[in-house]
Amino acid sequence: MFNACIIGTGSALPEKALLNSEIGEFVDTSDEWIVRRTGIKERRISLKEGEGTADLAALASQKAMEMADVSPEELDLIVVGTVTADRLVPSAGCMVQQILGAQNAAAFDISAGCSGFLYALTTVKNATCSGACKTALAIGVDRISTILNWKDRGTCILLGDGAGAVVVKASEKETGILSSHLKSDGRLWELLYSKEGNSYVPECLEGLKPKSSYLVMDGNRLFKKAVNSLTDIANQALKQNNLSGEDISILVPHQANMRIIQATAQSLDIPFEKFYINVDRYGNTSSASIPLALDEANRKGLIKKGDYVMLITFGAGLTWGSTVLRWCF
Ligand code: UT7
């Protein structure tokens, strides 16, 4: 058995920053309301050619591979958490593989809403620890703007586009990913779902009926469920690793809403200062939110070798999860 160590992080964002005031031009909202209720000031939206889901994911991956000093040929696995692959077929994973030139890898996608990255990381960790693969990429990417209803002020203010990636390597050292807890509750899928879309409505029978694959959300109920689930899963992880909140150097939460993060910090015995937050600049980037924030924190020098790092996530499905790591480099 090996341990799975993160040895490089990377992220990529579209150039276009969409301000709250710009959203106020097409739905009935205001910068004041959005900042007070969510903490979000702006988010990135991918509008340009060459800023597809696979392009952003590949760019984030290249940065992580550069940090890790890993070549494309060394990769034997690429797992992408996303709900907005550029195409229904093939997977974003295979398109990333092609852009990177990682011809020795197996590549595929995982759909777990905003929890996609932790589901991808856990899959990579299990493959690495079992010896099935040596060097892998776990990616979280979404161009969630492509499935937003830009007339629904309850959702379109919250989300943004982006990508984050980590290189994971098998190691015999004691550090690395210490635990992964994943949960889902399909009974609550209707709290956040895409309306129609993909193959739910058989389009050959529906004729020319336009697709309406945009997101539908029950924000209030999700908010409460998010805080409870994030708190439970973080406590489970602390217990399993015999750690207290004091031991955690940095906690990277899913960046859903500043108030969700504050409420979770309050229910956990972990000081708010240890939470890394960038929701103000990027909004909720779905699967990308954790690896994007992790990369920022890492590049700012906020994570040191030997630190205990906790990642907690929550998203559509419903899905949620946590990962505890001992930082390797
Ligand atoms: O990634 C994981 C999945 N997502 C989440 O976990 C999101 C969880 N939910 C949330 O973040 C929050 O519930 C929202 C930010 C979506 C909404 O905030 P809230 O404080 O829960 O507001 P609310 O839904 O209770 O709405 C309060 C009022 C309503 O008006 P009335 O009925 O009181 O007159 C809404 O119509 O605010 C209104 N409202 C808005 N007003 C201005 C809702 N959205 C907006 C808006 N601008 N963008």
Structure description:
This protein is an alpha/beta fold and 329 residues long. It has 11 helices and 13 strands. The chain has a single domain, classed as 3-Layer(aba) Sandwich (Peroxisomal Thiolase, Chain A, domain 1), CATH 3.40.47. Helix content is 32%, strand content 25%. Strand 12 (308-315) and strand 13 (319-326) form a beta hairpin. Helix 3 packs across helix 4 (92-100) and helix 8 packs across helix 9. The mean pLDDT is 94. Oxa(dethia)-CoA is lined by residues 29, 33-34, 37-38, 114, 153-154, 157-158, 192, 219-220, 222-223, 226, 256-257, 260, 284, 314-315. The active site is at 114, 254, 284.
Helices and strands, with pairings:
Layout: E1 3-12, E2 17-19, H1 20-23, H2 31-38, E3 42-44, H3 53-68, E4 77-81, H4 92-100, E5 106-110, H5 116-129, E6 135-142, H6 153-156, E7 162-171, E8 176-184, E9 192-194, H7 203-206, E10 215-217, H8 219-240, E11 248-253, H9 258-267, H10 279-282, H11 289-299, E12 308-315, E13 319-326
Helix pairs in contact: 3-4, 8-9
Bound molecules: oxa(dethia)-CoA.
The site of oxa(dethia)-CoA (UT7) has 22 residues, from helix 2, helix 6, helix 8 and strand 12.
Main location: cytoplasm
Pathway: Lipid metabolism; fatty acid biosynthesis
Domain Beta-ketoacyl-[acyl-carrier-protein] synthase III C-terminal: 238-327
